Amino acid sequence: MFKIVKAPNNILRSQAKLVKKVTPALMKVISEMIETAKSFTDPEGVGLAATQIGKDEQFFIAKLENHPHLLGQTGFVPVFNPTIIWFSKRYKVSLEGCLSIPDYYGEVARPIMVKVIYMNSNGQTVKETLRGVNAMIFQHEYDHLHGRLFIDYVLSQKSRLFKVTGKDKTGADIFEEVAL
Question: Could you report how far apart the first and last alpha carbons of the chain are, in Å?
C-alpha cells in the first residue's frame, strides 16, 4: 500500500513526464495503487494519480462505471499518457474531494463529456468518449498529472469550499463552509 502525498507537497504541482513503456514493474505499481484506492472507504477512493504516490509520470487509475474494457462492469482502469482532445460545452457542478486534501470538498464545474486518448496496460492507444461521473473522475485525475488540484477550480470559479467537521447520528458527514 502506498502512502498518499498530501498538499502542499510540490510534486502535486508538477508536470508529470510521459511513460515510455508499460512494464511489469509499472503494472505492479498499478496493482498496488488499486489496493491503496480500495482501502479508502470513507470517502471512497475512486481514482489515484501517480503524483499522489510520489511518482513523476503520467499515469493514473480511475474507477469507471460500465466501462467497455471491463466488459460493462465497474472497476479501476489504468490510464497512461492521457490527453483530453475535446470537452463538451455543457458543464455540471459537483462536490469534489481529493485524497491529497483530506476532509475538504469543493463545488467544481466540469464538462459533462470528454473525448480522451490514452495508452492502456497493453501499450495500445485507446480513444473513447466519457460521460457523467466517468468524465468527472478522468478530468480530476488528469489534472493531477499537470499540477492542478480541485481547489484551483474552486478558487478560479469562485465557488464554495467545505470542511468535514464530524459525523451526524446517521454517520453522514457534517460540512462547514470555509471562507475563501
Answer: 34
Write the Ramachandran bin of 81: left for phi over 0, alpha for psi from -120 to 50, otherwise beta: left
Could you say which of 65, 141, 176, 177 is catalytic?
141
Whether the CB-CB separation of 97 and 42 falls below 8 Å is answered with: no
Pull the grid cell for residue 18: 510521459
Task: Indicate the class that CATH gives domain 10-100+109-159.
Answer: alpha beta
- 140 annotated to bind ligand: yes
In a structure prediction context, what are the per-residue pLDDT tens digits for the chain, which is 180 residues long? 999 999 999 999 999 999 999 999 999 999 999 999 999 988 889 999 999 999 999 999 999 987 666 655 678 999 999 999 999 999 999 999 999 999 999 999 999 999 999 999 999 999 999 999 999 999 999 999 999 999 999 999 999 999 999 999 999 999 999 998
| Strand stretches in the chain, DSSP E | 47-49, 59-67, 73-87, 91-98, 101-111, 113-119, 125-131, 161-167, 173-178
Is 65 a catalytic site residue? Answer: no
98 in a known ligand binding site:
yes
Domain residue spans in the chain?
Answer: 10-100+109-159
